[in-house]
Amino acid sequence: MANEARVLLVAAPFYEDITEQLLAGARAALDAAGARCETLEVPGAFEIPGAIAMAEAGENPFDGYVGLGCVIRGETSHYDYVCGESARGLMDLSLRGVALGYGILTVENIKQARARAHVDRGDKGRHAAEACLAMIAARNRFGASR
């Protein structure tokens, strides 16, 4: 299954050092599974679901997608909107049969982000890629259409 899987990593590099770690973990997991991947950068976490929807609607959709980014709480309600709407957008896609891995960190501070993103610690990029591969396998098992 994974040997032929094509996965698009959609990354929001707003916090570049965090996103680099998430990407490294995701790529390692996909490489280990024999999957092929491409990367698309978008401005922020809010844009991740839209980019995936565009790729999915294109002529040659990927087998799965991994959204990677980081949102750190600030002094305004912006955090709540970005976190909630990016999660809702990805869930909407998932419910349509799109195989996804959710790798958007939603944290209180940069220390928490680093602990979750770093490949030697939380490695959430790897976990998100592994979730994507599991959802590709589930879709294939049930013969679900997209």
UniProtKB/TrEMBL annotation:
* Membrane spanning residue stretches: none
Task: Name the active site residues.
Answer: H78 (proton donor)
Q: Which reaction does it catalyse?
A: (2S)-2-hydroxy-3-oxobutyl phosphate + 5-amino-6-(D-ribitylamino)uracil = 6,7-dimethyl-8-(1-D-ribityl)lumazine + phosphate + 2 H2O + H(+)
- Highest taxon of the lineage: Bacteria
Among the GO biological process terms of this entry, one is: riboflavin biosynthetic process
HAMAP family the UniProt entry points to: Lumazine_synth
Q: What does this protein do?
A: Catalyzes the formation of 6,7-dimethyl-8-ribityllumazine by condensation of 5-amino-6-(D-ribitylamino)uracil with 3,4-dihydroxy-2-butanone 4-phosphate. This is the penultimate step in the biosynthesis of riboflavin.
What's the protein here called?
Answer: 6,7-dimethyl-8-ribityllumazine synthase
- What organism does this protein naturally occur in? Marinicauda salina
